[in-house]
Amino acid sequence: MNDNINNIDKEHLKSNDFILSKEIKIEPLWNNQDVSEFFKVSPGTVRYWCHVKAISYHKIGGLVRFRPKEVINDFECGRLGKIGKCRSYL
């Protein structure tokens, strides 16, 4: 019975137009504390940035997480400096 399932899966995968890759690169996500340490600001400032939508974030369940590349891009584009709370020493 297990062989039948494997054969069905192989046939199904061959018929689809996508390619499965064994290598999946998963970027680690930052939490509020990671972002606050990176910019040398308080965690409350990071929460404020999220509230005014000055920084990109993602909600996973009830947790707020950040992609490092997006956070750095927000800083480089000047989104954080426009709100007057950015005390970065980069």
Salient structural properties:
90 residues; mainly alpha; Multidrug-efflux Transporter Regulator, Chain: A, Domain 2; two-stranded antiparallel sheet; 44% helix; disordered C terminus
Report the CATH topology name. Answer: Multidrug-efflux Transporter Regulator, Chain: A, Domain 2
CATH-scheme architecture: Orthogonal Bundle
β-strand amount: 5-15%
Number of H/I helices: 4
Return the structural class: mainly alpha
State the major sheet: 2 strands, antiparallel
- Specify the overall morphology: globular
Distance between the termini: 60 Å
**Count of distinct strands:** 2
Whole-number total of structural domains = 1
Radius of gyration from CA coordinates = 21 Å
Low-confidence stretches: 84-90
- Strands in their spatial order, largest beta sheet: 1-2
Helix content: 40-55%
CATH class: Mainly Alpha
Which series of helices and strands comes N to C?
HHHEEH
The overall average pLDDT, rounded, is: 77
Overview of the molecule:
With 90 residues, the chain is mainly alpha-helical. It has a single domain (22-90), classed as Multidrug-efflux Transporter Regulator, Chain: A, Domain 2 (Orthogonal Bundle), CATH 1.10.1660. It has 4 helices and 2 strands, in the order αααββα. It has helices at residues 2-15, 32-39, 43-51, 68-76; strands at 58-60, 63-65. The protein has a two-stranded antiparallel sheet with strand order 1-2. Strand 1 (58-60) and strand 2 (63-65) form a beta hairpin. The model is unreliable at 84-90 (pLDDT under 50).
